[in-house]
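Review form for a predicted model. The reviewer records the input and the model, then writes brief findings.
Reviewer: anonymous (R2)
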Amino acid sequence: MNTKYLKEVEQALKRSVVNDPEYKAFREKTTNLTVLGHRLPLMQKIEKEGFSFYSESIQDVLQTWSDIWKSTKIHEVMYLPLFYYRRHKNQLGPKEWKLLKTWIAQIDNWEHADALCYLYSFLYERYPKLVEPTLFVWNRSKNPWKKRASIVSSIYYASKNRVTPKRTTVFKLIEPLITDKDPYVQKAVGWQLREAYNLWPKETLTLIEEHLTSLSSTSFSYATEKIPAKKKVQLKAVRKASRLAKE
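Model under review:
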């Protein structure tokens, strides 16, 4: 890769470091990367101000960002290409997917994971036949971030402004991970059930009831956020009875 661009991006961030030890310490708990301590608005501002390679072709910019993503050891640097493609999400296409799907290998924290899944969700919305096979491969991976991405990328957040994925596909991605032990996968299962409930309340409630005693407490908590209080009390009672029966 052309290391001058990596140096350009890293130096832009290092010049803007703000002394915020409490926030820096918070971020350091979530990643093994070097943390500078920037807050999101400052990183977004730095990215939007641009870099010298922004004058190059769309494909060259993509390749440069991909090289930077895979080479840097700085947490904040990895945020910048995610912000860039969030601003240019209408640009996302098969060529972008070919490279962006490889970025999952560098993930070691939930912040980058979810920001990347946001981009994947737009690619899945536009090119389901292209993206879906990879989601199913990730769903069976030993890598917890790939498993998390396999389900979070299918809906991300339910919205009338987004194209709704196939319910059967979403459920097929969720079900194999319901008993997963990784805490970040458990959270993702809960979030996806919550978002699925927003789209298909009756069918999702049935799915939750089918796996009610298998859901982790974390997954159950998130999954039932939108379920009516009375029904949630009933579900909790069933889970409690199941636990007591096993003691």
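Findings: The two ends are 58 Å apart (CA to CA).
Further findings: The first helix runs from residue 3 to 14.
Recommendation: see findings above.
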